Here is the input.
Amino acid sequence: MNGLLGQIFQLREGIKSKRVSSYDRSGGNADYVRIAAGETIDIADIAGAGIIKHIWITLSSEDAFMRRNAIIRMYWDGEEHPSVEAPLGDFFGQGWGEEYSFTSLPLAAAPLKGKALNCYFPMPFNNGARISIENQSDIDIRAFFYYVDYEEHLSIPVSMGRFHAWWNREATTSVHPPEGEMEWVGRNQTDANNYLFAEIEGKGHFVGINYYVDSPGPMWYGEGDDMWMIDGEGWPGSLHGTGTEDFFNTAWCPNELYAHPYFGCARVPDKLGWMGRTHVYRFLLEDPIYFDKSLRASIEHGHDNNLALDICTVSYWYQTEPHKIFPPLPVRASRANMPEISIKDVHTWRHEWRKAMGGSGTLWGNEKG
Here is the structure.
């Protein structure tokens, strides 16, 4: 029997269920730890072999941006460099340091109002596992609650890849001014100027991405083709997409909330058009991207990379070790949000347009130059 419950009845030998949690060791109800400003703590340090099956986290802090200021890292088999490194909220499916509900099969931000962070990606290890939280804020996390549920095994098969996740960010540049999909109809035959969301060395398979885009203008932020260069191949690669919404399994420039176990739109802007913050996601659980030596995965920011956007991503994959060491995580100040575009900003654009059109008091705003 196949499917999520296909083997639930199968009895297994040599496996023990274990948990590491923040429960009050005195038997009281203070079931949390405090993480001081600038402090790093291990929430799990597990010996031997096993598979982490579930992580649950919630926290309380006076820092409203703690989901971007706190960093989660994971280490397998005694490695020096983390296989997972990302801001806490971004990893679990919340961008921009915000709190909002998010639903998918491997990750979720659950009630109350997205405060409960859950991960169901299985994470095998053969010689120890360590999960740390670093508070890079100037303010304490006054209460940090967590579960790390795992299976203890005698050993893990060599064929089990190690779980990885990498956060990246780029304020993209319009490669061919003037900016905008309507003004530029060039032909892009390279991935050189794309937004890069994975650059992996080793054997493995790519299983998902959270994509957070902040658009300073009202026009559609997409039309970006996804491009996958497997094992060092050149353009156009083994997999070449047809547009941002197509890769994320939607269509026709959507701007509505939608939650499927494998893909969806977890946050959409409530402004003019697509102006503001959009969070889309896709998990390739039925159709992973396999590679034997390397994977370079990217997406255009607008057709032919002609849009200025603020893009952050967390990519998720499994691979052999050792992995390519991640670039240094941007410092806290470099992870801050871009300023929000306001109604006054839009009016200023209109004012400048009116001046360019001669300044007549009868100009409505859609006259052609």
User: Anything to note?
Assistant: The chain has two domains: 14-159, 161-328+337-358. The helical segments are 66-69, 88-92, 244-247, 343-356.
